Amino acid sequence: MPAPLLPLTPAVAVDDDALRAALACAERCADDAGAVIRPHFRARLVVDDKAGDDELYDPVTIADRDAETVIRNRLELERPLDGLYGEEHGFRPGRSGLTWVIDPIDGTRAFISGMPLWGTLIALYDGERPIAGVMDQPFTGERFIGSRLGATLTHGGRTTPLATRPCAQLEDAVLYSTHPKLFTGAFEQAAFADLCARVRMTRFSGDCYAYCMLAAGQIDLIVESGLKPYDVQALIPIIEAAGGRMSGWKGESGAHGGRIVAAGDPLLHAAALEVLAEVP
């Protein structure tokens, strides 16, 4: 597991009523962010690059920054004791033991290209793992929610349960990954190439949207590397509540990012881990 960017502490107990209240707050945050983001989508934007000269292009826009600001503003108003950790505005410790983990636009490359394969990610981290997650796509009007209370998709005024689909063997699986350049070094690249050779089909792009399609039973497997906590934390509760598995390549917790494998079928997850096990 990569070095944690968030504190590792004993899990804070959150009962069902408190969890429902937290999810309702997360949805209000998503509403606020969507109102900020929508006017900028498919508009002409100034795009800055956060990456260094030797790193992959890492775009950011006013939509990313302002969306995180409105999320943080609401959380500071409604949840002043909780910590905040966002991609754009960093970490602010809290006093409750709970931390909100925010990616205002996961998939900024898609966003600036006019593609709807992006979303706002909001997670609640209890010190050990994310216990609630929301992925909101304000352009399509889709909202994916996950916790121990269940996983749902709300769209067009209708809420339906999410469920992954059975797919036990690599040979039958549809594999997604955001980009092949996520994999660095010969071992990672060889392991990913091995998986691609074994599955039925491999596709690239998708970011958080691909993970939600896995939870919805549309695809089977996602393998990535070099991720941060805000890239994954909201997605873990969604996938796991829908019946899937999401972990690091060694089967460890994926809550702090790094190398990630997600599968809709636990047997497929185990099969993918076998292929990835040789990577040091």
From TrEMBL:
It catalyses: L-histidinol phosphate + H2O = L-histidinol + phosphate. The keyword Transcription does not apply. GO terms for biological process: L-histidine biosynthetic process. Mg(2+) binds at E87, D103, I105, D106, D231. One of its GO terms (molecular function) is metal ion binding. Pathway: Amino-acid biosynthesis; L-histidine biosynthesis; L-histidine from 5-phospho-alpha-D-ribose 1-diphosphate: step 8/9. This is Histidinol-phosphatase.
